[in-house]
From TrEMBL:
Annotated NCBIfam families: alk_sulf_monoox (TIGR03565), PRK00719.1 (NF001939)
GO MF annotation terms: alkanesulfonate monooxygenase activity
Family note: Belongs to the SsuD family.
EC numbers on record: 1.14.14.5
Keywords from the named record: Flavoprotein, FMN, Monooxygenase, Oxidoreductase
Protein known as: Alkanesulfonate monooxygenase
PANTHER family attached to this UniProt entry: ALKANESULFONATE MONOOXYGENASE, ALKANESULFONATE MONOOXYGENASE-RELATED
Catalytic activity: an alkanesulfonate + FMNH2 + O2 = an aldehyde + FMN + sulfite + H2O + 2 H(+)
All residue ranges annotated as the Luciferase-like domain in the record: 5-325
InterPro entries (alphabetical): Alkanesulphonate_mOase_FMN-dep, Luciferase-like_dom, Luciferase-like_sf, SsuD_RutA_monooxygenase
Reported function: Catalyzes the desulfonation of aliphatic sulfonates.
Cited Pfam families: Bac_luciferase
GO biological process: alkanesulfonate catabolic process
């Protein structure tokens, strides 16, 4: 099985060390363009663009990078409860059309109650997933060309439709990651690819089996992916030294404050990340070559594969053997590490080549719209 290898755009900041401004660098459009173009040239299939109040807006970043890349796909966040599903469908279709089918979407329900409240979303964890299910049902159907009436507990629409469809058929793929029972149920019903954060093999296998079984009960099959940091060097010793260097400016007080902040999250996935290390910098190798140091101060994906290239490739193939075909990787700083990962790891892996998306619908000339509902028929030049 060929592996789809994605990289990460650090729209929340970048640098050489975690938890300090020392060794940090400015992340402006020029830098994001450098990272995206490096990923494009090196053969990564796409880039994940994060979301949240600490990040630049993922949609605007993706749109700005379409003209300066060629084959790279953009995995952009959908935020149920923050935006209408029909508006999100129009935005998704536009991004897909402008990129000629290079748009992918990542459903993010959110896990930080303070941030969600700041965006006006005050639903509980269970209610957010109820709303996410309703959002996704509408979003999918509208993008697939239906005229949608929907009366849900949280969302109601009447006559929702899309006049300018996406070019990917039947619509751009939907990715999603979540560890709770409600999240797995949503994935089984709604998405094409289920993402997990990097946990030990046994935990990942258990999660995949659960989601696969839930999907099978609905007559569906899913693909699977994993989100990991990578610290790969020519020798294992160099890799572990680089891992220690990454957290070398963290003191116990900084770790404790970060963990206290992350503890308020109601995300099951975040709780699982924290349980791997329990805030203890002396117990960070939580499985062979799986290092939880990033999660000491960072929310979300908190583990890294650490080692020489052959060892890291072996660990990646162990995850692939569970059924994972997509690996969303990152490393600090993201520009230099994009090269290091591609140069050291790609020759040892069966990396899927960059491809133009299949089943693209042509963009048809239609002229100017003459009302809110009617598109004029294209007329050949006389």
């Amino acid at each position: 099985m060929s592996l789809n290898i994605f990289w990460f755009l650090p729209t929340h900041g970048d640098g050489h060390y975690l938890g300090t401004s020392r060794g940090a660098r400015a992340v402006d459009h020029g830098y994001l363009q450098q990272v995206a173009q490096a990923a494009d040239r090196l053969g990564y299939g796409g880039v994940l663009i994060p979301t949240g109040r600490s990040c630049e807006d993922s949609w605007l970043v993706a749109a700005s990078l379409i003209p300066v890349t060629q084959k790279l796909k953009f995995l952009v966040a959908l935020r149920p409860g923050i935006i209408s599903p029909t508006v999100a469908a129009r935005q998704a279709a536009t991004l897909d059309r402008l990129s000629n089918g290079r748009a992918l979407f990542n459903l993010v329900t959110g896990g930080d109650p303070d941030e969600l409240a700041g965006d006006g979303l005050r639903l509980s964890h269970a209610e957010r997933y109820e709303a996410s299910v309703e959002f996704t049902r509408i979003w999918r159907r509208v993008l697939e060309g239906e005229n949608v009436d929907y009366e849900g507990k949280h969302i109601q629409v009447k006559g929702a439709k899309l006049l300018y469809p996406p070019v990917q058929r039947p619509r751009p793929p939907l990715y999603f990651g979540g560890s709770s029972e409600a999240a797995q149920d949503l994935a089984a019903e709604q998405v094409e690819l289920y993402l997990t954060w990097g946990e030990p093999l046994e935990a990942v296998a258990e999660k995949i089996a659960s989601v696969r079984e839930k999907a099978a009960r609905q007559g569906r099959t899913l693909r699977f992916g994993i989100r990991l940091h990578v610290i790969v060097r020519e020798t294992s010793e160099e890799a572990w030294q680089a891992a220690e260097r990454l957290i070398s400016h963290l003191d116990d007080d900084t770790i404790q404050r970060a963990q206290a902040s992350l503890a308020r999250y109601d995300s099951v996935g975040q709780q699982r990340m924290a349980a791997l290390h329990q805030g203890d910098r002396n117990r960070l190798e939580v499985a062979p070559n799986l290092w939880a140091g990033v999660g000491l101060v960072r929310s979300g994906a908190g583990t890294a594969l650490v080692g020489d290239a052959a060892t890291v490739a072996e660990r990646i193939n162990e995850y692939a053997a569970l059924g994972i075909d997509t690996f969303v990787l990152s490393g600090y700083p993201h520009l230099e590490e994009s090269y290091r990962v591609a140069e050291l790891l790609f020759p040892l892996l069966d990396v899927a080549p960059q491809q133009t998306p299949e089943n693209l619908a042509p963009v048809v000339a239609a002229g100017e719209m003459i009302s809110s509902d009617i598109l004029p028929t294209a007329v050949a030049a006389q």
